[in-house]
Each structure stands twice: as structure tokens, then as C-alpha cells.
Design brief:
By secondary structure, the protein is α+β, with helices and mostly antiparallel strands. Helix content is 48%, strand content 18%. The strands form 2 sheets. Strands 5, 6, 7, 8 and 9 form a 5-stranded antiparallel sheet that branches. A 4-stranded antiparallel sheet has the order 1-2-4-3. It starts with a strand and ends with a helix.
């Protein structure tokens, strides 16, 4: 076998692969036997027709294509090994010569894994920033408990709308004096100050009383999901139907008993502080780990092929679609609801995809440099973790992985995790 390599555009490499005629003839004979077992040829038992009869029956092109399918995969793999190429795309195959008795010549165009030049990844200096838990943080959680125990009561007779009030209202919107679709609502619930309406809408309702009509003038944001309304001025006629306010309990021992297992407010505060400190510590550790991986990634030199980023974006969108389906929503429905399209999503995902690809390349290269391997126990631990996360047994997870042909993906993922942990374990103290 003879192999030549030629560099092309977009970091692609085209391999010209030549296989000796003798090997082609062997493949043709083998192909004939396989075809003879699959087709019915009058006058012959299955698998017993000679090669020339099979060729007459199925046609030369079909026979040669079968022979090519037999010989090409191994020839391609051998060519990759010879040229020391690790492809990140499937090959684009172009057959040049395919005849019995002649050398097979075909071209395979691939995008190789880019060369990665490692920078520092051991002994990285990454400080752990633990946030201080302040009294205000504790008080904020206490107020959350207080708010949850609050009861809704009608505002006093003749009361005007205040910030934070819970209202119901009727409204109708007009653009250039004309009502627009979706601009009308009746008995619509709205908390003043929630920011759920167009900016400026809720503020203008402050001071309005029940039964009083109030004109509200706003401008739709330029990025508003409806293109017909984006950037346009509108006037809403609003009538407040009801005003309710939340009546809050006192912050004392009684409140502590209602919302926790503790008998006193001081005990509850102490527990809140402890939990906040533990969360702050965990966050600091995770932030330090992430910063170390990011630093090691930024230290490498690599020219990432665009196709790797494109493929990662596609994978991210597929994962997004799966999550949406689990929630009972199709991707197309989400795009319509969000007022966007696939092109915009791809653009939004591209920066993250590039970072993720670069990080993966760094981790794979560090694994090679440090001879980090994935052992059976590592795979078992990952499967067990996946099983616990999905409420399944390890056996069920293993079965799914095998059926989907994702054992290689699982091993690669575990290798990256082990390598990331190696970098983290070697952070400078």
C-alpha cells in the first residue's frame, strides 16, 4: 500500500491511498461470495455461484462497490497510522480507480486533530477566595422565611397602589391609536415592582385606586420578541380591579419554630450562618478548580479547526433539544416562543463551544504527557454516579451505553475528568 498526504484548505488533509491489485482481486472474490449468499441466482444454491456469474447477476458496479467496502476501511485506518493522523471528522471519500486487476486508488479527505503545545498546567497559582458571611446575609434569609409566612390581605378601602402590592387589572394597549394583538387582558395578576411588564409600566400604576382608569405610556424595547411592536410607543388604558398586600409576621422565636426545627431565633440564625459558610467554602473550592482548568487552557497554543467548533455547537443544540423534550416542548416551539432561530442560537453558543473544545484538547494532551489512563474501576465509578443521578441501576446504565455505542465517549469523558483532577491536585499551595 502506498499513501501520500496533501494539505488543503481549512486545515484539511487529503490522503491518496493506493492498494495493490492482488489485494483488490482478493476483495472482489470475497465480495462475490458475500453477494452470492444474499441474492437468489437461478440454477445455483445460495453462496455457490462463481464470481463471474455473480457479477453478471448484480452488475460490475455493485460487485466492485462491495469489494471497495471490504478493503477501504482497513486501508484508510492503515493510512492514518502511517501518516500519524488522528481525524476529528469522518472522511470524505473519492474513488479514483476501482477495477479488478488494477491497483485501487482513492482519496480520503479529513480534518486532523490539531497540534497542541502545552503551557504550564502543574503548580498553577490560583487563590481560593472564600466570601465572608455577613449579618446582612443571615438577615436576608430570615426575611425570606418571614415573606413565605406572610398572608395576603385586602388593602384598606380607598388605598392607592404602592410598590410591592399585588394587583389585578384590566388593560388594553394601543399603538398609534389602534389596538394590537395580545395587548388586552382582564383580571390580570400583577405585582407592582416585579418587572414582569414592559419597563415603566408598573411604575406608572403607583398611586392608582380601585376602579380608576389610568393611562400608561411606554415604549417597547428594541429587542422585544414581536418585531411588529419592537421599539414602538404604546399607550395602555388600565383599570385596577383589586389591591392586596402581604401581611408579614414578626421576626421572633415563634417564626423560628414555624419555619425550622429550632426553638429560638438565635438558633435558627446560627444554623443559617453555618450553612452559608459551608456553601461559601464549596463555591470557593469550585471556583478555584474552574480557574485552574481555565488557566491551563489559556496556557496552550493551538489552532482549532472551525469544524470542531461547529460540531460542538451542533452537539450543544442537540442536548438542548433533549432537555426541552423532557419538559414536553419541541425545539421549534421554544424558538418560536423565544423569538429566535437556529442561526442565532448557533451564534450564541459558538464562544462557549470554542472554549469547551480548547479545554478538551488541553486535557487530552495533558493526559498523554502524564500517561493518565482510564481503568475499569474508573468506568464503574462513573456508571454508578450516572445511575444514582438518573434513579437507575448500574446495569441499566451499562446496557444503554452499550446499545448506543457510547463506551468510547464514556471512557474519553472519564479520562478528561481524571486529568482535570490531576491539574487541580497540583495547584500550588
Amino acid at each position: 500500500m502506498k499513501v501520500t498526504a496533501e494539505n488543503g484548505e481549512n486545515q484539511q488533509v487529503t490522503l491518496t491511498i493506493e492498494v495493490e491489485a492482488a489485494e483488490v482481486t482478493k476483495a472482489v472474490n470475497k465480495a462475490a461470495k458475500r453477494l452470492a449468499n444474499r441474492v437468489n441466482i437461478p440454477g445455483f444454491r445460495k453462496g455457490k455461484a462463481p464470481c463471474i456469474i455473480v457479477e453478471r447477476h448484480v452488475g460490475t458496479d455493485a460487485l466492485m462497490q462491495e469489494a471497495f467496502d471490504l478493503i477501504a476501511p482497513q486501508a484508510f485506518d492503515n493510512a492514518l497510522k502511517e501518516q500519524k493522523i488522528e481525524p476529528v471528522t469522518r472522511p470524505n471519500i473519492d474513488i479514483v480507480t476501482l477495477e479488478d486487476g488494477k491497483d485501487l486508488v482513492f482519496k480520503a479527505t479529513v480534518t486532523p486533530r490539531p497540534e497542541v503545545k502545552l503551557g504550564d498546567y502543574k503548580g498553577l497559582k490560583v487563590e481560593k477566595q472564600v466570601a465572608e458571611v455577613k449579618d446582612e446575609d443571615v438577615e436576608k434569609q430570615i426575611k425570606n422565611f418571614q415573606d413565605r409566612q406572610g398572608k395576603m390581605v385586602d388593602a384598606p378601602e380607598g388605598a392607592a397602589v404602592e410598590n410591592g402590592d399585588f394587583t389585578t387589572l384590566n388593560f388594553e394597549g394601543f399603538v398609534d391609536g389602534t389596538p394590537f394583538e395580545g395587548g388586552k387582558g382582564e383580571d390580570y395578576p400583577l405585582q407592582i415592582g416585579s418587572g414582569s411588564f414592559i419597563p415603566g409600566f408598573e411604575d406608572q400604576l403607583v398611586g392608582a385606586k380601585i376602579g380608576e382608569e389610568k393611562e400608561v405610556n411606554v415604549t417597547f424595547p428594541e429587542e422585544y420578541h414581536s418585531k411588529d411592536l419592537a421599539g414602538k410607543a404604546a399607550m395602555f388604558k388600565c383599570t385596577i380591579k383589586s389591591i392586596k398586600r402581604k401581611e408579614l409576621p414578626e421576626i421572633n422565636d415563634e417564626l423560628a419554630k414555624k419555619v425550622s426545627k429550632f426553638d429560638t431565633l438565635d438558633e435558627l440564625k446560627a444554623d443559617i450562618r453555618k450553612n452559608l459558610e459551608e456553601n461559601a467554602e464549596r463555591k470557593a473550592e469550585n471556583d478555584q478548580k474552574s480557574a485552574a482548568i481555565e488557566q491551563a487552557t489559556n496556557n496552550i497554543q493551538v489552532d482549532i479547526p472551525a469544524v470542531m467548533i461547529d460540531n460542538r455547537v451542533t452537539a450543544m443544540i442537540q442536548e438542548m433539544a433533549m432537555r426541552l423534550e423532557q419538559q414536553g416542548m419541541k425545539l421549534e416551539q421554544y424558538l418560536q416562543y423565544a423569538g429566535t432561530d437556529i442561526a442565532k442560537i448557533r451564534e450564541d453558543y459558538r464562544e462557549t463551544a470554542e472554549k469547551n473544545v480548547k479545554t478538551d484538547l488541553m486535557l487530552e494532551e495533558v493526559a498523554k504527557a502524564e500517561d493518565i489512563k482510564v481503568e475499569a474501576k474508573d468506568l464503574d465509578a462513573e456508571v454508578a454516579a450516572m445511575a444514582a443521578a438518573y434513579g437507575a441501576t448500574p446495569q441499566q446504565v451499562q446496557k444503554i451505553i452499550k446499545e448506543q455505542g457510547r463506551i468510547g465517549d464514556l471512557a474519553a469523558s472519564v479520562l478528561r475528568k481524571k486529568t482535570a483532577q490531576f491539574i487541580i491536585d497540583n495547584i500550588a499551595e
